[in-house]
Amino acid sequence: MNVCPYIEASFKILGKKWNGQLIHYLSLCKDHTAHFSDIKRDLTGITSRALSMKLSELEEDELVEKLVETGSPVTISYELTEKGNSLAESLKPLQEWAQHYMDVELPIESEEK
Fold first, then answer.
1. Whole-angstrom Cα distance, residue 89 to residue 87?
2. What global pTM score does this model have?
3. Where is average pLDDT lowest: 9-13, 15-19, 72-76, 88-92?
4. Which of 28, 41, 37, 43 is nearest to 80 (CA)?
5. Number of neighbouring beta carbons within 10 Å of residue 46
6. At what angle do helices 48-60 and 19-28 cross, to 10 degrees?
7. Which contacts of 37-45 are long-range, i.e. CB under 8 A and separated by 24 or more positions?
8. Which of 24, 51, 59, 69 could form a disulfide with 75 if both were Cys (CB 3.0 to 4.6 A apart)?
9. How far apart are CA 15 and CA 13, in angstroms?
10. How many Å apart are CA 89 and CA 96, to the nearest integer?
């Protein structure tokens, strides 16, 4: 029996470190858009270099679009594409499954809500 090629293709993206978290993070942002510095601040543990590489990979996969606003200073932000939003939506059932079956230690601030 062979693995479904669509599942295999999906996990080539989601199986890479940080990709799922980046897609989920952007899906939670206003207009599904965030500045590099905000992403770097909020995704603890990722280096600037790794974040830059991951965003470039997600751009190549047409999941994220880089937005450059010229001016003084130049502002760069990243936005989920329609394809990226669709993938983010498909992660919600996985999140619900994990909430039901996985024992995850929540940050203190999340437990107080």
1. 5
2. 0.85
3. 72-76
4. 28
5. 18
6. 80
7. 39/78, 43/18
8. 69
9. 6
10. 12
Confidence of residue 21 (pLDDT cuts 50, 70, 90): very high
Alpha helix locations (H) across 31-101?
36-42, 48-60, 82-101
- Two tokens, residue 5: 């090629």
Q: Taking residues 23-50, what's their average pLDDT?
A: 95
Residue 86 to residue 74: CA distance in whole angstroms: 29
Dihedrals phi, psi of 79, to nearest 5 degrees = -130, 140
Tokens at 44, concatenated? 């603890």
Kindly list the strands in the beta sheet with 75-80, ordered across the sheet, starting from the edge strand earlier in the chain. 33-35, 75-80, 64-69
CATH class of 5-104: mainly alpha
